[in-house]
Write a structure and sequence with these properties.
Helix content is about 50%, strand content about 10%. The protein is mainly α.
Length: about 110
C-alpha cells in the first residue's frame, strides 16, 4: 500500500505490527493482516540508529565486533569481509545469516 503512513519509535517488531494493524483497520478497512502481508511488511521495516554485532553473539570465539554501522546492509557487508578473511567463508550459509540477523543490535 502506498499511503505514506509511517510508524516511528516502535520499541519492537511486535509493537510496530500492532500499530500497523490499527492503521490498516481504520484507514484501509482491513479486519486482519494476512501472513503474506506480514511477510511483506517485515521485508520493508527500516530500523534507525546504529547497528552492532559480534561473532560471539552467534557462538563464535574470535572476538570480532562491528559497532556503529549506519545500516544493516553496511554491517553485513563488513561482516562478509571478516567472514572471508578470518573464517575462510566465501559465503555465509542462510541459517547462519538468519542467526546473525536475529542478533544484530540497533541503538
Amino acid at each position: 500500500m502506498n499511503c505514506g503512513y509511517e510508524v516511528k519509535g516502535a520499541s519492537s517488531e511486535e509493537e510496530l505490527l500492532e500499530e500497523l494493524k490499527i492503521h490498516a483497520k481504520i484507514a484501509h478497512g482491513l479486519t486482519s493482516i494476512t501472513p503474506d502481508l506480514v511477510d511483506k511488511i517485515k521485508k520493508h521495516i527500516r530500523k534507525s540508529g546504529k547497528y552492532s554485532f559480534s561473532c560471539a553473539d552467534v557462538g563464535m570465539k574470535c572476538g570480532f565486533e562491528i559497532v556503529n554501522a549506519d545500516s544493516e546492509e553496511e554491517l553485513l557487508s563488513e561482516l562478509a569481509v571478516h567472514a572471508k578473511i578470518a573464517h575462510n567463508m566465501t559465503t555465509i550459509p542462510q541459517d547462519t545469516l538468519n542467526a546473525i540477523k536475529s542478533k544484530i543490535r540497533v541503538s
